[in-house]
Design a protein that fits this description.
Largest sheet of chain A: 7 strands, mixed
Shape of chain A: elongated
Number of helices of chain A: 16
Radius of gyration of chain B: 14 Å
Number of strands of chain A: 13
Distance between the termini of chain A: 74 Å
Number of strands of chain B: 5
Number of helices of chain B: 4
Order of helices and strands of chain A: HHHHHHHEEEHEEEHHHEHEHEHEEHHEE
Strand order of the largest sheet of chain B: 2-1-3-4-5
Order of helices and strands of chain B: EHEEHEHEH
Radius of gyration of chain A: 43 Å
Strand content of chain B: 15-25%
Structural class of chain A: alpha+beta
Helix content of chain A: 55-70%
Largest sheet of chain B: 5 strands, parallel
Strand content of chain A: 15-25%
Oligomer: heterodimer
């Protein structure tokens, strides 16, 4: 729209240059003419009257160039302006032919009535060149438009909030291709199928319509031809089948485009076929990217599922074992109950009970052995997919990154570093630990800090006497006695220290378990700030070593 | 004492039989009779009132049974087969009440017995219900 108005204004400006009249009255008249021209153009534009617009432009042009000298370049340029601006006229070739007709008529008429100017055949040359340029740019424009709409259709699959189904993508592609191809009457693409090639069998991935047959064996010779030429056409009764081969990474695809063709001849001429094949190339290249992405996603989901499957099986097994163990406790419960209730029994009842109880001993013994074997199974780390026990050499960089990520995310502060530590990082010092357990320990401690600390928080990493020290510091919300209990429990070396504080329990237990298992030292202490509030400090100490290659710990 | 018969749905009878036998001797002088079935299809769901004094139901009752414990309770309620206050559900799972709520069954009169079942607790319950 804006381009159209700019063009008309340019037309008006050039017309002023052509008139070159300085007479005030003529200028006023001429200004009115230009205003009328622009107004009428605006009305016709708003009503989308294309042919009347074209006619109106040439009425104006003819009015301006009437009895002008066509040997003047500016006059000739003025008449050619609509042709130069051709692609702005709707982009339809039909109107372009009218445009040529009006331009040639304008030039012919004005050179004919002007007895001074000889009709010069060379005036046709620029028209001819402009016509070729128009058709070339029109072709490019249509290709660009096709490519754009095609890409949008495929992108919709990823961007659409309600996920598009495969057949909806294909429906869109078929519509695009049918519009682009301009098949002979009665012909059109009716189906597209996508297959993955393995050896000489193609396996269905998806298609524009539902298909029962999931696979097809291809003739060996046909397949090698297809791989060489990438695209082969095959006639089948009233159908044309286009086979298209594409390899994306290590996956080979074969696309089959089915054209319904009721005529005896091909739906496309040889020249059009080449163009159509290149359109198919574009379409199937993009489609294969999409299929590849989907395939990789499926693979990752399957991998995840296989990983999770082991966890799920283990947990289910553990749960069943707990149920089983519960049931197996019955004989033991009865033995205990018998001993508790003995004193309330009469002699006769006791005697009868003892006969029954004696049967329980063997049963209880057997059940106890079964319980112990289940316990052994659960305690055996090789059965437990959750167990992370492997110790490796870990760079201090990695420990720092994990610590920083967690501290920044959950505490919204930065980790302070000291100079000696930075030097150690450069010297490639390492720690012997398990990264997952380290992360669990840090995360658990941070969780505790978030729950029980005030705003004053500080975290640092430093190197002291070849030991990596991760220091956490925060103001403590709670009673001084609770803080003392926490410090005592953390510093305690007892394996199963009883946790005295009512608010601490499972989290501290996990931290201590990990620290014990992976030789991480813990030192907790209390400091008093200048304003008298309690400051809780904890250091996690990890020994460092020089890196050794192929170290087997 | 009149002989009383108790219907027991339990697929792992060997693990719990001892408790019932001991409770029987301890509190009832051995006068109780137990009719144990492993699967729901082993008994007809018809007018239990004339046959049994109590019904015990193991809630899982797995393996080849047409109805599990939850559905047996539902059948009892829907068909008015038995007084609900004479039905005892046996389970090792403390989420069983939630499951009954999810099935929209009113189990306020139902008794729940958690495994492992020691004979003294069982005897107390039997004395209370009989």
């Amino acid at each position: 729209m804006i381009q159209s108005f700019i063009f008309r204004i340019l037309l008006a400006i050039v017309s002023i240059l052509l008139i070159g009249d300085t007479n005030i009255c003529n200028i006023v008249v001429y200004s009115i003419i230009i205003l009328v021209y622009l107004l009428v153009f605006g009305i016709l534009r708003s009503k989308e009257k294309e042919i009347p617009r074209l006619i109106w432009d040439f009425v104006f042009i003819n009015l301006v160039v009437f009895q002008s000298d066509f040997s003047t370049p500016l006059v000739y340029f003025f008449v050619l302006m609509p042709l130069i601006n051709a692609t702005n006229y709707t982009g339809k070739n039909d109107y372009f032919y009218l445009l040529i007709l009006f331009t040639v008529t304008t030039i012919g008429f004005n050179t004919f009535i002007d007895e001074k100017t000889e009709y010069q055949y060379t005036l046709i040359v620029p028209i001819f060149i402009l016509t070729i340029m128009y058709f070339v740019s029109s072709y490019r424009y249509n290709r660009w438009k096709f490519d754009n709409e095609l890409t949008s259709k495929i992108d919709e699959f990823f961007l659409s909030p309600k996920k598009l189904k495969a057949h909806q993508i294909y429906d869109g592609l078929i519509e695009q291709l049918n519009r682009y191809a301009r098949f002979s009457k009665g012909s059109q693409i009716v189906q597209i199928k996508a297959y993955r090639l393995k050896s000489d069998v193609i396996w269905l991935v998806n298609a524009s319509t539902f298909i029962w047959e999931r696979c097809e064996k291809l003739d060996h010779f046909f397949l090698s031809e297809l791989k060489k030429k990438k695209c082969l056409w095959k006639k089948k009764i009233n159908l044309e089948l286009i086979y298209y081969y594409i390899q994306k990474e290590d996956i080979e695809y074969v696309f089959i485009c089915i054209i319904k063709n009721n005529s005896l001849s091909s739906p496309l001429s040889a020249v059009s076929r080449r163009h159509f094949n290149s359109a198919l190339n574009l379409t199937f290249n993009k489609l294969s990217l999409l299929l590849n992405t989907e395939y990789r996603l499926h693979q990752r989901r399957d991998e995840k599922f296989r990983e999770i499957k082991d966890y799920v099986i283990y947990v289910n097994k553990a749960t069943r074992m707990m149920h089983f163990i519960r049931n197996k406790m019955t004989p033991i419960s009865n033995l205990i109950a018998f001993h508790k209730s003995e004193k309330n029994m009469t002699a006769e009842i006791k005697l009868r009970m003892q006969r029954e109880v004696s049967k329980l001993y063997r049963r209880a013994d057997y059940d106890l052995r079964e319980i112990l074997s289940y316990a052994d199974y659960l305690l055996d780390d090789s059965n437990n997919p959750y167990a992370e026990t492997e110790i490796r050499e870990v760079d201090i960089h990695q420990l720092f990154i994990i610590l920083s990520d967690l501290v920044e995310q959950y505490l919204e502060i930065a980790v302070e570093l000291d100079a000696e530590l930075m030097e150690s990082m450069d010297n490639e010092k390492v720690v012997h630990t398990n990264l997952i357990q380290y992360k669990i320990l840090i995360l658990d401690w941070i969780e505790n800090m978030r729950k029980y600390s005030g705003d004053n928080r500080y975290v640092s990493m430093s190197m002291v006497n070849e030991n990596l020290i991760i220091h956490f510091e925060n103001t403590f919300i709670g009673e001084p006695e609770e803080l003392q209990a926490l410090i005592k429990n953390l510093n305690s070396r007892a394996k199963d220290a009883v946790l005295e504080g009512k608010n601490f329990g499972h989290g501290i237990y996990i931290i201590k378990s990990i620290a014990n298992a992976f030789d991480i030292g813990i030192k907790a202490e209390r400091k008093i700030t200048e304003c008298g509030s309690n400051l809780f400090c904890i250091d996690f100490k990890l020994c460092t070593y020089e890196r050794k290659e192929n170290l087997d710990i | 004492m009149n002989e009383k018969k108790i219907l027991i749905f339990e697929d792992d009878w060997s693990s719990i039989k001892g408790s019932f036998d001991l409770a029987n001797i301890y509190a009832f002088g051995g006068n109780l009779k137990f009719h144990q079935v492993s699967k729901s299809q082993e008994i007809k769901f018809l007018n239990w009132r004339t046959q049994f004094s109590l019904v015990f139901i193991d809630i899982t009752l797995a393996k080849h049974t047409q109805m599990d414990g939850f559905n047996i309770v539902k059948k009892i309620i829907d068909s008015n087969l038995f007084e609900l206050n004479k039905v005892v559900v046996m389970t090792g799972n403390n989420k069983v009440e939630e499951k009954f709520k999810a099935m929209q069954l009113d189990i306020s009169q139902l008794k729940i017995l958690y495994k492992p079942v020691a004979f003294d607790d069982l005897a107390k319950l039997l004395q209370e219900l009989l």
